[in-house]
TrEMBL record:
Matches recorded under InterPro entries: NAD(P)-bd_dom_sf, SDR_fam
Organism from which the protein derives: Actinoplanes oblitus
Segments forming a coiled coil: none
Name under which the protein is recorded: SDR family oxidoreductase
Pfam families in UniProt: adh_short
Length: 294
């Protein structure tokens, strides 16, 4: 197995400031890729998410992991900014091999417990624009560059397989639409040699989720006292390793159009989370014990 199987590959992680995006960017870097990390939160100014994480921090983590991290501030809802970003990648490298659409920004817009007939329509519209339209804009401008080098991979980061209702109509519509983005892109790109898939993590132990439970990564298990499901959570590196494994798989095209899970990919490719565990969200929900990695 090659230590750096993605050496020479150029990746764009749209929405790489924190959470799954950061974990994916770092693991792509660990596999040797050049990773463009984009988002709206920089050291110069925070986005309206008002979180401390920045694209510069993520890029530095990518470089420290063994890749090359390049931070670029970009609002992916603005086609002009996205076009400028892709033009910059084209001028520097002449190619784009991996696109990860992970823009979200919907946490402050999610109205859990509110029936749809009482929802704030402005919040619902903004969630849609941030979490779906941004992905479409980014693919629209990135794919022409990807077409120059067949064998590329587009990964739509989603939440869930779309089989069950997610408890809030606006949220459910957004995440289901992202799954369909993967399917639709796969259908239209298949003849051009580009693969598109959706990938979902389980219970993601993101920076915001750690804050929500009042814990750190060092003592995260204490969050299980508030919600036992948290004990089956995974770090952003877990889904990051899933994406890196897909990007390094020469047979990835056979999966095009599918929505895949971090836990199934971990068992197939043999990777673990950073703590050596192999959490399996579906098995957890069925009440089955977590299997030891090995």
């Amino acid at each position: 197995m090659r230590t750096h199987p993605l050496t020479g590959r150029i990746a764009l992680v749209a929405g790489g400031t924190r959470g799954a995006g950061r974990g994916i960017a770092v693991e792509l870097g660990a596999a040797g890729a050049v990773v463009y990390v984009t988002g709206r939160s920089t050291r110069a100014a925070r986005s309206d998410m008002d979180r401390p994480e920045t694209i510069e921090e993520t890029a530095e983590l990518v470089t420290a992991a063994g890749g090359q991290g390049i931070p670029v501030r970009c609002d992916h809802s603005d086609p002009v900014q996205v076009r400028s970003l892709v033009d910059r990648i084209a001028a520097a490298h002449g190619r784009l091999d991996i696109l990860v659409n992970d823009v979200w920004g919907g946490d402050p817009l999610s109205e859990w417990g509110t029936p749809f007939w009482e929802m704030d329509l402005d919040k619902a519209r903004t969630m849609w624009e941030r979490a779906v339209f941004t992905h479409l804009v980014t693919s629209r401008h990135a794919v022409p560059l990807m077409l120059r080098t067949p064998g590329g991979l587009i990964v739509e980061i989603t939440d869930g397989l779309g089989r069950e209702y997610r408890g809030n109509l606006a949220y459910d519509l957004v995440k289901t639409a992202v799954n369909r983005l993967a399917r639709g892109q796969a259908e239209e790109l298949r003849e051009h040699g580009i693969t598109a898939v959706g990938v979902t993590p389980g219970f993601l132990r993101s920076e915001a989720m750690l804050d929500h439970f009042g814990v750190t990564e060092a003592d995260w298990r204490a969050g299980g006292l508030t919600d036992p499901h948290f004990l089956a959570s995974e770090t952003p590196h877990y889904v990051g390793r899933a994406v890196a494994a897909l990007a390094a798989d020469p047979a990835v095209a056979k999966r095009s159009g599918q929505v895949l899970t971090s836990w199934d990919l971990a068992e197939e490719y043999g990777f673990t989370d950073v703590d050596g565990r192999r959490p399996h969200w579906d098995r957890h929900l069925r009440g089955e014990p977590e299997l030891a990695a090995g």
